[in-house]
Amino acid sequence: MRAGLVLLLTLAGCRCRERQAVTATPPKVAHAQTRWARHEVAAVPEDVYGVPAWSRVFALAFERPVSIGVPACHVADAGCLGVEPTAMRAEPMVGLPTVLGRDEPLAFIGEQVTFLEEDRRRAALTHALSEALQIDPASAPLAAVLFQNDLWERADAVSAAIRTEPQADWAALEDLRSRFVAVMRHVALSKAQLAALGSNDAAVEQRYPELLAGFAKRDGWVELRARSTEHQGATVWNTTTRHAERHGHRMVFRVFIHHQKGRAALEVALARWPEPLPAGTRFVITGAPMALTREGTLEAAPFITLVETRLAMPEGFAPGSVGALAHDVLEGTRAELTRAFAQTGGLRLLGRDALLPVGATCMPDFTSRLPSAATCLMCHGPTGARVTGPMAHGEVKFELTDDGAAAGRAVADAKRASASFQTLGW
Ligand code: HEC
Known about the structure:
- This protein is of the alpha+beta class and about 425 residues long.
- The protein has two domains: about 30-65 and about 100-190; about 200-425, no CATH class.
- It is built from 18 helices and twelve strands.
- The strands form three sheets. Strands 3, 4, 5, 6, 7, 8, 9 and 12 form an eight-stranded antiparallel β-sheet that branches. A two-stranded antiparallel sheet has the order 1-2.
- The chain is globular, with a radius of gyration of 24 Å.
- The termini are far apart.
- The protein binds heme C.
- Heme C (HEC) binds near residues 242, 329, 359 and 360.
């Protein structure tokens, strides 16, 4: 009888200690297994950076299966090019099973991160991250910039999930974040190595002269900067673009305009904003990754990875079909940037029916996609003739600038001042 009593007490004691232990550590979450469909990343995934060890990290850190909404014409035989854009948008979307996280822009992949909590996935990623430390970034400097920027997004996504998702397994995610940051440090270039990569403007212009003639030498082109307040009466002036803000200030966007009548004509037209600019004006927005250097500074990469452009059409222009819209996107995949940088600049013109997230790069929604040209129409209208500005409800000021580094500096300053940057501990 005494033996039985002792046993009972011990069991009760055990249970009690267990309960205490449970309340002291964050609750283990089950949703990683239930909310995310299982997905096996290939043992040898696509080599996006030309550095297999880094590409394995990329696949493990980003790949996940989801169903996205696409317009019915995308899955029909005739496709979307001949479809009238407003008719297309009026139709219900259809679901398309997709694997996110292949070689496409980060903003299109989306910032979800809790699928990495799953034990096997996390173990594989942890292992791949330690292998990534074996590669000398000087052996693949351009890839190192792209890889660091991708890891930076993951580190910021972890911080956001811990802040905003009550069920997130913060211990698991914080462990991953410190590993991401360690690899980011390892692949950081010096300022001199970064600058030595050089610009791809000339190569991109040479490949697409119909869109960018004169661009590399800024021959007839001017850079435009907008400053804005969020609402009327606000005293804080934003000096970066909506796009940079949406990309967590890990990318810099620059706006350029061109008209054959030159700078003076553009200045006159801008002073009349929000009136449209003359037909034939070409607008360009470029994107470039920000890099964290060995010296500890934040710098814009000297090369671009994205161009979105449109041609102002005359008042009253109404596109009869998606293919008739003068909105075009040049996208730099990791694979092409790291292999064909010197020859082609690494950017490729997407078809006007290539799918982009609704909201494009300005406010990407990765769960639904439209043909690229039709996506642009939603914010820039059929003629695309008005300088958009940051779409704030407050005041906007435009200026033409000759300081090509100003946009990058503004993004670096905004990033340094952000909570996500403090958390990174760079
Ligand atoms: C969600 C709305 C939205 C969509 C969709 C969108 N843009 Fe924009 N775009 C903007 C905003 C806002 C700016 C101004 C950025 C700034 O200065 O902050 C802009 C700027 C631009 C500029 C620079 C000149 C300007 O108007 O200020 C170009 C060129 C451009 N977009 C092209 C495109 C193309 C091409 C697409 C389609 C692939 C597209 N945009 C889709 C909102 C959008």
